[in-house]
Design brief:
The chain is an alpha+beta fold. The protein contains nine helices and 18 strands. The protein binds adenosine-5'-triphosphate (ATP). Keywords: ATP-binding, Nucleotide-binding, Transport.
Length: about 325
Amino acid sequence: MTPAVSFQKVARHFGAVKAVDALDLDIVAGEFFAMLGPSGSGKTTCLRLIAGFEQPTAGTISIFGERAEGVPPYRRNVNTVFQDYALFPHLNVLDNVAYGLMVKGIGKTERHKAAEEALALVQLPGYGARRPGQLSGGQRQRVALARALVNQPKVLLLDEPLGALDLKLRENMQEELKSLQKALGITFVFVTHDQGEALSMADRVAVFNDGKIMQVGSPQEIYQRPKTRFVADFVGSSNMLPPDFVQRYCGQRRWGSLRPEAIRVARAATGEAVQARVSGVSYLGAATRLALDTEGLRLHASVPSGTTVPEQGDAVVLTFNRDAIHLMDEAT
Ligand code: ATP
């Protein structure tokens, strides 16, 4: 099947800065795709390249099989929802949503009807007469979404669209965006630096660092089988195990990663176990995070808060399944 968006050896350099570097990527039609990475890793530049606000310095981008080179943004069948929403304060909600259709020369009755439908889609029916200034942050976010959906793009680009919302609203909107995407079947490309958001919403995630993609995969693959230390560290937290440790338990001299929740902490154990001393206890709500000193190695474990949690200074033993140690591809 033709990918919705295809990057072939795409680069975007700004002088010496390689914002995007020799990137190969296919985004599948109809998928919810997340671009995840730290600030400055090139995610926004990738979105702008797809939208056509930015031109590659090398390589080619295709949108549904057509080369995007020389195609202006408004002819790309792609819309963007910006983090700051970019609504026109002097226009009411209905005219904000209908704006793209007006630019295309579509008559008032028709474009207002389409705008009403888009507002219903984002759960804001009847809000058309208000000004953006009379809406909450979450409602403005929905208006921006309706405006981007009104002319039925094939690809919707979302640049940290939930960044300005408080946690509770953010979680609600994550669920809503996801079900909206599934209902509409439009390809969503979502930029975020929040790993929880990427894992919970996306069908596939690309992890960016320094203008390059470190790994692309399902949330489960990215979390459970990180290929590099960077991915293991950036997506959730992970214990990095040096080759000596890994050799002892897995027989291979490689770096490994072990998730904090895969470590069981007890006062006594039968079978093979690691002796440790609790050097820190942090209560996180549902879970408690323990810092554990063992064999010259500091490990972190996450245990459910409801159970008996050891205290700082306690001697404990750690057990885990060998399978939970994930071997890294890279040598270091
Ligand atoms: P954030 O999460 O902070 O938005 P990002 O991952 O989206 O970061 P980009 O905005 O794509 O990162 O930027 C990647 C790199 O390219 C950064 O080092 C940035 O400073 C640089 N960059 C982006 N746009 C320009 C520009 N117009 N001129 C010069 N450098 C730029």
